[in-house]
Specification:
- The protein has an eight-stranded mixed β-sheet, with helices on both faces.
- Helix 4 crosses helix 5 (151-160).
- Strand 4 (89-99) and strand 5 (105-112) form a beta hairpin.
- It has helices at 29-38, 40-43, 57-72, 121-137, 151-160, and strands at 14-15, 19-22, 77-83, 89-99, 105-112, 141-146, 163-174, 177-187.
- The protein is globular.
- It is 29% helix and 31% strand.
- It has a domain at 14-143: 3-Layer(aba) Sandwich (Aminopeptidase), CATH 3.40.630.
Length: 194
């Protein structure tokens, strides 16, 4: 089990061939805001409603406080994907809804900036991060969900090693509408793509 982590981006760090995965820090706001702003039309169909102030520094601080609360309560951990050469923020992965006791399960969410999409970054990030989530977070099962129409996300999860387990009706509210989602899971004993 990980020690309780602070708001300022402390926590596990994973290094892959092209990326550094680490918790967000307040100093990330400008790069995060830039990549999200330029990717807005690309991301909106797959995410909860964006508020008018969603890219402000105040909103980012609130997001970091929420992440810190999740860490403190052993409910989750957020990671930014940082390009090792340019130090640009490419995207993010959030482990949330950690359930302990008899479950030992968490749920993954992820996003990629438009200009970085379909270049293998998220595949690389998930393959690097998932073993850490199993070992350091003590999970035995990781779940993910995506809209059935989001074929790239479905293919990504299957390529990583997730198995499709079914369809959850009106599972999440995306862009203001309740949508069915395809449910995926990966067990600690499953093979993860190399």
């Amino acid at each position: 089990m990980l020690d309780k982590l602070s708001l300022m981006g402390s926590g596990p760090k994973v290094i892959t061939e092209r990326l550094i995965l680490r918790p967000p820090r307040i100093s990330d706001w400008e790069k995060w805001s830039d990549v999200r702003a330029e990717s807005r039309d690309f991301l909106v169909p797959w995410e909860p409603v964006w508020t008018m102030d969603s890219l402000t520094k105040a909103s980012f601080r609130a997001r970091l406080r929420r992440y810190a609360r999740d860490v403190k309560d052993d409910m989750g951990q957020a990671f930014f994907l940082i390009d090792r050469e340019s130090e640009d923020i490419i995207g993010g992965i959030t482990l949330g809804n950690i359930r302990r006791g008899v479950a030992q399960t968490g749920t993954l969410g992820y996003w990629t900036g438009k200009r970085y999409a379909r270049k293998g970054y998220m595949f690389e990030a998930l393959c690097g991060l998932i073993p850490v989530l199993f070992s350091e977070f003590g999970l035995r099962r990781i779940e993910a969900a995506c809209l059935p129409s989001n074929i790239p996300s479905s293919r990504l999860l299957e390529k990583v090693g997730f198995s499709k387990e079914g369809l959850a009706r009106e599972y999440l509210c995306i862009n203001g509408v309740w949508h069915d989602h395809s449910l995926y899971a990966l067990l600690r004993t499953d093979r993860i793509a190399p």
